[in-house]
């Protein structure tokens, strides 16, 4: 009985904590500390390498965990629109020059293109010939 009571109390306490209202002002007050910490860490990375995620992935992971922790401490879900807005601001600050380069597609040289077209055509003809030949010889097989 005591065990059941204790478990139910813990369950109700957990349910009560989840229903607490998000303290948005507290979250917005704490998130800049995450941004400041990320900014300090990014100073260690050459700005020319800011578009290479492998150069700062650990710093970004720490930043993400910090924003999630602060949102949870303020009884807010993460991500939420306010946290996303803050994270977007950090992205604009550090990664606004990181654009994906568009790939310019070109046709291969004619020799390669002709080969790539003829191989499947020849294989198709060979398979049709083989099927027809085998169907005519079914009486022997």
Characterise the protein shown here.
- The protein is mostly helical.
- The protein has a domain at 24-96: DNA polymerase, domain 1.
- Helices cover 67% and strands 0% of the residues.
- The protein contains 5 helices and no strands.
- The protein has helices spanning 2-18, 24-42, 57-73, 81-95, 110-136.
- Helix 2 (24-42) packs antiparallel against helix 3 and helix 2 (24-42) packs parallel to helix 4.
- Residues 1-17 have low confidence and may be disordered.
Summarize the model shown:
This protein has helices at 2-18, 24-42, 57-73, 81-95, 110-136. It has 141 residues and is an all-alpha fold. The termini are far apart.
Short descriptors:
mainly alpha; disordered N terminus; RAMP; DNA polymerase, domain 1; RAMP_sf; membrane; single chain; 67% helix; 141 residues; disulfide bond; coreceptor activity
Topology:
Layout: H1 2-18, H2 24-42, H3 57-73, H4 81-95, H5 110-136
Helix pairs in contact: 2-3, 2-4
What's the CATH class of the domain at 24-96, please? Mainly Alpha
Mean pLDDT over the residues: 84
The secondary structure category is mainly alpha
Distance between the termini: 80 Å
* Count of helix runs: 5
The assembly state of the depicted protein chains is single chain
How would a textbook summarize the main sheet?
none
Supply the CATH superfamily name of the domain at 24-96: Receptor activity modifying family
Rg estimate, integer Å: 31 Å
Low-confidence stretches: 1-17
List the helices and strands in order: HHHHH
> How helical, in percent, are the residues?
55-70%
Residues in β-strands, percent: under 5%
The CATH architecture assignment of the domain at 24-96 turns out to be Orthogonal Bundle
* Principal-axis shape: elongated
User: What is the third-level CATH name, the topology of the domain at 24-96?
Assistant: DNA polymerase, domain 1
- Could you give the count of β-strands? 0
């Amino acid at each position: 009985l005591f065990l059941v009571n204790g478990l139910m109390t813990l369950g109700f306490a957990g349910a009560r904590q989840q229903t607490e209202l998000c303290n948005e002002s507290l979250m917005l007050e704490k998130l800049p500390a995450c941004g400041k910490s990320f900014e300090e860490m990014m100073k260690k990375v050459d700005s020319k390498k800011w578009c290479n995620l492998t150069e700062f992935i650990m710093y970004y992971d720490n930043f993400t965990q910090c924003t999630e922790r602060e949102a949870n401490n303020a009884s807010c879900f993460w991500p939420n629109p306010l946290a996303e807005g803050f994270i977007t601001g950090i992205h604009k600050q550090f990664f606004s020059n990181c654009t994906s380069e568009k790939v310019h597609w070109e046709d291969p040289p004619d020799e390669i293109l002709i080969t790539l077209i003829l191989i499947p055509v020849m294989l198709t003809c060979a398979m049709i010939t083989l099927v027809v030949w085998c169907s005519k010889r079914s009486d022997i097989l």
